[in-house]
Write a structure and sequence with these properties.
The chain is mainly beta. It has one helix at residues 22-39; strands spanning 65-69, 73-79, 88-93, 96-110, 115-129, 140-144, 147-153. It has two domains: 19-48, no CATH class; 58-158, Immunoglobulin-like (Sandwich). Helices cover 11% and strands 35% of the residues. The strands form two sheets. Strands 1-2-7-6 form a four-stranded antiparallel sheet, with no helix packed on it. Strands 3-4-5 form a three-stranded antiparallel sheet, with no helix packed on it. The longest helix has 18 residues, at 22-39.
Length: 170
């Protein structure tokens, strides 16, 4: 068996910043690392991405949710733009309220000089611990204009207003 032939190689050329920026390179790397640790790379500028990373999708995360506490119920409003009502699921199990959704969008254009076809798919799931004061048998969910509203009514004993207690001098 013949011995492998070693080919001469040229040292790799590494792109470096101009010398006048050298004092700031360490600071830039440290700030990049901080943002990478914080957002998993989401905060990096677009020019720092590779071609395979793509653009971060709104559906890579969970939808925006507002939670409010009223006198008679807790209310959750979730923004779900572009999702059909049939693709939204709300479940309650073991004291956990779970909202699931899936977006399936296809677009096709045929013109004289071009053909465009795009597909967008994404899903999310978000869960909430239900407080003990909620009557789980009366939970309601409504979907209107891309906003899912869930009403979690409080039990009668949890709806009692605060009672004022007189303070007496000793």
């Amino acid at each position: 068996m013949a011995e492998p032939v070693k080919l001469p190689t040229k040292p790799e050329r590494v792109a470096t910043a101009p010398a006048r920026w050298a004092p700031f390179e360490g600071l830039r790397r440290e700030i990049d690392r901080l943002f990478d640790d914080f957002g998993g790379g989401f905060w990096r500028p677009a020019f720092a991405r590779t071609a395979f990373e793509g653009v971060p999708s709104a559906w890579a995360t969970v939808p925006a949710v507002d939670v409010s506490d009223t006198e008679k119920a807790y209310e959750i409003a979730a923004e779900l733009p572009g999702i059909d009502e049939k693709n939204v699921e709300v479940k309650v199990a073991d004291g956990i309220l779970t909202i699931r959704g899936e977006k399936q969008e296809e677009k096709e254009e045929k013109k004289k000089d071009y053909y465009l076809r795009e597909r967008n798919y994404g899903s999310f799931e978000r869960s909430f611990q239900i407080p003990d004061a909620v009557d789980t048998n009366k939970i309601e969910a409504n979907f209107k204009k891309g906003v899912l509203t869930i009403v979690l009514p409080k039990k009668a004993e949890a709806q009692q207003t605060a009672k004022k207690i007189d303070v007496k001098a000793a």
